[in-house]
UniProtKB/TrEMBL annotation:
SUPFAM superfamilies found in the cross-reference section: Acetyl-CoA synthetase-like (SSF56801)
Domain AMP-dependent synthetase/ligase stretches: 12-390
A molecular-function term among this protein's GO annotations: acid-thiol ligase activity
Organism: candidate division WOR-3 bacterium RBG_13_43_14
Protein name: AMP-dependent synthetase/ligase domain-containing protein
Signal peptide: none
Origin organism lineage: Bacteria, Bacteria division WOR-3
PROSITE patterns named among the record's database cross-references: AMP_BINDING
Domain of life of the source: Bacteria
Pfam families membership: AMP-binding, AMP-binding_C
AMP-binding enzyme C-terminal domain sequence ranges: 441-535
Length: 548
């Protein structure tokens, strides 16, 4: 009989009871069975308590994805402390800010990130203890300590949504917030002890922590960590794990498709014709997709893949359709850190590539103040909604009203209950005639061009007329342009590239009403700056003047 799990630190208990010798976590030579995982978590938990820490004290985790990171997180919450996950790519100033704001008593850190902690330690009066992940084996044995007086509604994790000094907000999630999300996800994404996963999204991110770390351990699955995020290391880990479930940001899937298409572009004419023929057959006869592209999936270590889920950012229709054509079982999820994070998931039996799926059990979603097209702000209510922002009542009251979380995302439902996200409320462009323009809708159309690698649609004020214009910032696919120039024996000039993009925008504009047309554009020579989950930092470009 399975034990009811009420606290995050116990999430692996049922798996330990059922199959203690089964692999739980692996990265290169570091492996933990479920029994070994529990023993190490207990050892570290007892050590933390021996330091004189008390219930509710904050303790940070800083490092790359690895089994020891998982041990740190679980030991902290099992000790009744509050875990503060840190993005390993933060600057020293950002780390200092978060550790100071959270009043962290200590940090468990990887040897690769220790320099950052040592640099800021002297400026933190509350930070007393630093524990290295690769020194767990040297921790002295401590007396077993039972943690009492824990409550499922106690604060368990404190997640800073931004590392920017002075502007970050810390989301407070309880044990029950996250566990309720696990129980809901369990009903829509079936995973069990036969499954293997590869962890790619940074573990400090709530989507990975809930769906790619806690949920697999709750179900008894095995989690593998690649040595690095280099393509060859990821593919080798896919093959080693014989990966069956993959949760990743859309960029990984985009790069997978782009790499495949580059290989095809450089192949012989016979291979190109064969690929087009197979693609055509697969597009018409869906049941043939899996056998037709079996060799491609095997080369990528995905021949055993039964489920791929994109989250953390929007998946474009172009990529979703490309993956479907290859026979990869692709679904999407949607959520926020503030909702622990999952709100909706595509049904496995009937996904819609343009939708983020249907609402998970136990969660309510409404569209607030919808317009004539049914689009309004997505608001959410349920046991997964955060306790609030840490020491920031004003910000909490702005987003949680009458028990509803106002997400800031704009969306709508179709007649079958599928949710569609139109964009961010802050990104909405309202014309002088009162028309609503959703930048993400235009970006979705423009990104379909093979010549466009990344794009942002933003409002601009015309200095002469003072009218707001729709403008596109475009990062072309320079690799494809280079391949095309070699094939044609022609060198593309800056003017050529500009004309190619201009023509692509013209084609899209022909399908749009006048008020939605893209009037200006700018060519970027480098990728847009992104978050660790590869979302473009849109706010950095809203106010910047465009080159005309």
């Amino acid at each position: 009989m399975e034990r009811k799990i009420n606290f995050l630190g116990d999430v692996f208990e049922n798996a330990v009871a059922r199959f203690p010798d089964k692999l739980a976590l692996k990265k290169e030579d570091v492996t933990y069975t479920y029994a070994q995982l529990k023993n190490m978590v207990e050892k570290l938990k007892n050590h933390l308590i021996s330091l004189g820490l008390k219930k509710g004290d904050r303790f940070a985790v800083h490092g790359e994805n690895r089994p020891e990171w998982a041990v740190a997180y679980l030991a902290i919450v099992r000790a009744g402390l509050v875990c503060v996950p840190l993005d390993r790519l933060l600057s020293e100033a950002e780390i200092l800010h978060i550790l100071r704001q959270s009043e962290a008593r200590g940090v468990i850190v990887s040897e690769n990130c220790i320099d950052n902690i040592e640099s800021v330690k002297g400026e933190l009066k509350d930070l007393e203890d630093v524990i290295l992940m690769n020194k767990y084996g040297e921790l002295p044995a401590k007396k077993e300590v039972k943690v009492s007086n824990l409550n499922p509604d106690d604060l368990a994790v404190l997640i800073f949504t931004s590392g920017t000094t002075g502007t970050s907000k810390a989301v407070m999630l309880s044990h029950n917030n996250i566990l309720s999300n696990l129980h809901a996800v369990e009903q829509v994404i079936p995973v069990d002890e036969t499954d293997t996963m590869v962890s790619i999204i940074p573990m400090h991110h709530t989507f990975e922590a809930t769906a790619g770390f806690l949920y697999p351990l709750y179900k008894g699955s095995a989690i593998y960590y690649p040595p690095s995020l280099k393509p060859n290391d990821i593919i080798d880990t896919f093959k080693e794990a014989n990966v069956s479930c993959l949760i990743a940001v859309p960029l990984l899937f985009e790069k997978f498709l782009a790499g495949l298409h580059r290989k095809i572009a450089g192949a012989s004419l016979t291979t190109k014709v064969m690929f087009r023929t197979i693609s055509g057959i697969g597009a018409v006869f869906k049941f043939l997709r899996k056998p037709l592209f079996a060799k491609v999936r095997k080369q990528m270590g995905m021949n055993n893949l039964r489920l791929a889920c994109a989250g953390g950012a929007a998946l474009t229709a172009k990529v979703a359709q490309g993956l479907e054509l290859l026979g990869l079982p692709m679904i999407q999820g949607y959520g926020l850190t503030e909702s622990s994070p999952v709100i909706s998931v595509s049904p496995l039996e009937k996904p819609k590539s343009a939708s983020v799926g249907t609402i998970i059990p136990g969660v309510e979603v409404k569209i607030d103040d919808p317009d004539e097209n049914g689009i309004g702000e997505v608001i959410v209510r349920g046991p997964n909604i955060m306790l609030g922002y840490y020491k920031n009542n004003t910000a909490t009251e702005e987003v949680i009203r009458n028990g509803w979380l106002y997400t800031g995302d704009l969306g709508k439902f179709d007649s079958e209950g599928y949710l569609y996200i139109a964009g961010r409320k802050k990104s909405l462009i309202v014309t002088q005639s009162g028309k609503n323009i959703y930048p993400e809708e235009l970006e979705e159309k423009l990104i379909k061009s093979p010549w466009v690698r990344e794009i942002l649609v933003v409002p601009r004020i015309d200095p002469s007329t003072k009218k707001e214009l729709i403008c596109a910032l475009v990062f072309p696919d320079y690799e494809l342009l280079e391949e095309d120039s070699i094939t044609k024996g022609k060198t593309y000039t800056e003017e050529d590239v500009k004309n190619i993009i201009k023509d692509e925008i013209r084609k899209v504009n022909e399908e749009l009403p006048a008020y939605k047309k893209v009037i200006q554009f700018e060519i970027r020579e480098e990728e847009f700056p992104k978050t660790t989950t590869q979302k473009i930092k849109r706010h950095m470009f809203i106010e910047r003047a465009i080159k005309v």
